Amino acid sequence: MMKRWKQIIIGCVLFCANAQITYGQSRLDTLTTLLEQIVKKDSLTGMSVILVNSKQILYEHNFGYADVSKKTKYTSHTIQNIGSVSKTFIAIALMKAVELGYFNLETNINSILPFKVVNPNYPMTEITVRELSNHSSSILDNPAIFPDTYQFDEGFAEYDASAYKILQNLGYRKQVRNTSLKTFLCDYLAGDGRYYNTNNFAENEPGSSVHYSNIASALAAYLIEVKSGMTYAEFTEKYILKPLKMKNSSWFLNAQELNKYAKPYYNLVTSFPFYQCITYPDGGLRTNTTDLSKYLIALINGYNGNQRLLTKESYQMMFTPQFLKDNPPKGISLAYRNKGIFWNLYNNGTIGHDGDDPGVSSFLFFNPTTGQGAVFLCNRYLADKTEIIALLVKYVRL
After folding, report:
1. N or C: which end of the chain has fewer CB within 10 A?
2. pLDDT per position as a tens digit, 321-375
3. How does strand 360-367 pair with strand 372-378?
4. How is 161-180 classified by DSSP, letter by letter?
């Protein structure tokens, strides 16, 4: 009788395990089907999606092409720039700089910089490192200047002149000289700079209003350069990319890697020239979903107190809401999200950041409750990512 009961119990366990595997596979097959529908509906050229937990990749699927004319498939090893998801790397780097004693979040940036930055409307008000990190510094991306910081390399690879013309008509005319991060920031923010303009600053006092700013983000990265004696690219290589073995991630175009790059597309078939950004820390990281899965896993573990890139205290500080619910600054709706140190703290319980640039759409996030996260990269700008984001958020909740 005992032997029979053991056989029944073992059979039940095996049945339940097989049922769970079958359900899990069916669930992921459904996700693939739904993603395929979005790719088709939105005429996306290429895309890669990965889901992870704290230990490993749970799901990986790729769609479309990295290069349509060559019929090169988009894979999880395909490299592209990720837009403003790059700012999450500034967050890690900034907290590492705090750990190294370079400054703290309340430090006046003018105590670090070799040039002076003040809002001309409030010349006596300090701008702090924290205000750079939560977009309340009052530094603006002047639309008459910022698009010209994109440096298109017309000789790097073939592109479609019609697509490039559309970008030029939108203000991407490459009329800002290609120079170092330091030189551009000085030219833009210092009173005697080549591109200085009162329109580079908000009419609001620093700390009183939120204005999303790529240039302020790049300035935060430059503070690290000043204090470390390294370029921001070198600093992130040392403290983030190498420790995580993100071997296919870098900040600048490399002709030897061209066959691994996804072309940036305007529509399903026409592509832009490849480009780099003078303010590269704010949106210029080139990577793939395989490398970003390592990054996501490290973040999930870091949130749960397992140290790797940062101390437990630094992770906690980085993910602490910056704005009080009863007295938020102007320009942000806390009904949707709060801000951490560069990170978005969404009211659905997830933490993440999105990215957009010519020929780029991206989103990376994790759910602290479930210990799972997801990332998608696409080599075409997707004007509305809410459908795919909602789908991925749903699947890391299950």
Report:
1. N
2. 999 988 899 999 999 999 999 999 999 999 999 999 999 999 999 999 999 999 9
3. antiparallel
4. HHHHHHHHHTT----S----
Q: How many residues does the chain have?
A: 398
323, 332 in Cβ contact below 8 A? yes
Distance CA 380, CA 264 (A): 6
Instruction: Supply the pLDDT for residue 102.
Output: 98
Is the CB of residue 89 less than 8 Å from the CB of residue 240? yes
The sign one gets for the Cα dihedral 331, 335, 340, 346 is negative
Torsions phi, psi for 221 (to 5 deg) = -65, -35
Q: What is the pTM of this model?
A: 0.93
Strand, coil or helix: 93: helix
Which domains are assigned to the chain? 43-397 (3.40.710.10)
For residue 5, pLDDT beyond 60: no
> In the predicted model, what is the mean pLDDT of residues 12-28?
55
In this structure, are residues 105 and 98 in contact, taking their beta carbons and an 8 Å threshold?
Answer: yes
Average the pLDDT over 295-316 and give the result. Answer: 94
The position carrying tokens 């509906």 is 41
pLDDT at 7 exceeding the cut of 70: no
Taking phi over 0 as left and psi of -120 to 50 as alpha, with beta for the rest, 135 belongs to: left
**Nearest in space to 289 (alpha carbons), one of 38, 62, 77:** 77
